[in-house]
Amino acid sequence: MSLKQKTVNGLFWSFIDNFSNLGMQFLIGIILARILSPREFGLIGMLTVFIAISQTFIDSGFSSALIRKKECTSNDYSTVFFFNLAVSICCYLILVVFSGFISSFFEEPQLKLMLQILGLGLIFNSFGIIQRTILVRSVNFKLQTKVSLIASFGSGIIAITMALRGFGVWSLVALTLSRYFINSLFLWIWSKWKPTLIFCKQSFHELFGFGSKLLLSSLIDTTYRNIYYLIIGKYFSAADLGYYTRADQFQSIPSANLNSVIGRVSYPILSSIQDDIPRLRENFRKLIRSTMLITFVLMIGMAAVAHSMVVTLIGEKWQPAVIYLQMLCFVGMFYPLHAINLNMLQVQGRSDLFLRLEIIKKLFAIPIILIGILCGIKTMIVGMFVNTLIAYYLNSYWSGKLIGYSFRQQLNDIFPSFIIAMVVGGGVFALTFTGMNSLVWLFLLQLLTGMLLTIGICEALRFEDYLYLKNILLEKILK
């Protein structure tokens, strides 16, 4: 299979995996949002940062180190598996010990038991990390798609049933816990790899040499991305956090999932040609241009339909989340750019530079967090937008320096896509002023208009990035 075929096939199945799985989770989230209150979503949001940081410790950068390594042995996989499992147990015990303090910090007594139960998901998830890593290494997302769909459907049924029977926030705990368990269970059933009782010190030191810097980088980034949940949960109400988490979850549908799709496919593909700089640069450029056309259109489009979408899908009680969603869309549209540029640093083996950049970028975030505490959530989101622009400049400057693709060249490549997205978004948002009484029909009209405008403008301009994506899609469908 050629590099292009491998890339297209990987992107196709990764896209199907993420967005079919996402569609399932999105539908489940809508149903739960209609049954449960913003406060209950806020309570689960208070624990997000602790689970996310624990998960980062468990992986410790080993997955990336295994993916980048040209030849991996059974010793490598088994060593990392037992390390992941041991760290997950340690993290769970630490969460149990500090659950009372965390509960007191937020002044929410029920968080103690919630964290003790939810933390079990860390152990469940650790059982499937190596299986997922092996599938990513081989750019095999077809099996992951089957597993994740089964896990999302099964956990969704459990959570919705519990919510209808009055279990409240515990239905959200069950949603996460059961998804981790089902996912790992089916990865074990269908994966050919099984661990052997080996822990190789040589493998550990080799992989940790690269992964340790990524661990620190991931800890900094994960803490930054989730610290806002902690700040809002502490200094504002649980309902306010509920509105913010729901808005963040909506915007992450295109941004974080595109980030995941592109990141997990591009990293092993680009790693395979890491020594051929001209070829690496050309593939990197195509990846950025095509990704950002999709990202800009989806994110700006979501900001334009935010009001009709939120009220239509989850009801009037969630209306305060609309403004947060609109603002977060402009923050989130840069996430895939960050991921692609940071992947290039890893591909080139510069985990040291990766770490230094993360420290520098997050130092800029400290005043933003303090301003948010003093001035409110909206001001904090504006600060997040400024910080993401600074972060993009730093990431693209250094990744471009490694392969001869400068920040200015990147901007020139993605700017036309941004202009097209703004025109489409403006046209879609203008429909808000038509005076339609039904927000449901307005939402559907906005979606149809956005799709037709995007296709119409790109076809009329014979826009290169659109034609590239169109040809790939047609080629895949015809096969």
Describe this structure in words.
The protein has 479 residues and is mainly α. 85% of the residues lie in helices and 0% in strands. The protein is globular. The mean pLDDT is 83.
Mean of pLDDT: 83
What is the H-and-E element order? HHHHHHHHHHHHHHHHHHHHH
Task: Provide the gyration radius in Å.
Answer: 22 Å
- Count of individual beta strands: 0
- The backbone outline, from C-alpha atoms, is globular
Biggest sheet layout: none
The total tally of domains equals: 2
Termini separation comes to 15 Å
Specify the number of helices.
21
Kindly state the percentage of residues in helix: over 70%
Outline of this structure?
This protein is mainly alpha-helical and 479 residues long. The protein contains 21 helices and no strands.
Using brief descriptors, characterize the structure shown.
about 475 residues; mainly alpha; 2 domains; 21 helices; about 85% helix
Give me the secondary-structure topology:
Blueprint: H1 3-35, H2 38-46, H3 48-59, H4 62-68, H5 74-106, H6 111-118, H7 120-126, H8 129-137, H9 142-164, H10 170-190, H11 201-235, H12 238-252, H13 255-272, H14 277-314, H15 321-332, H16 335-347, H17 351-375, H18 377-403, H19 407-430, H20 439-461, H21 464-478
Helix pairs in contact: 1-9, 1-13, 2-11, 2-12, 3-5, 3-11, 4-8, 4-11, 5-6, 5-7, 5-11, 7-10, 9-10, 11-12, 11-17, 12-15, 13-14, 13-16, 14-15, 14-16, 14-19, 14-20, 14-21, 15-18, 16-18, 17-18, 19-20
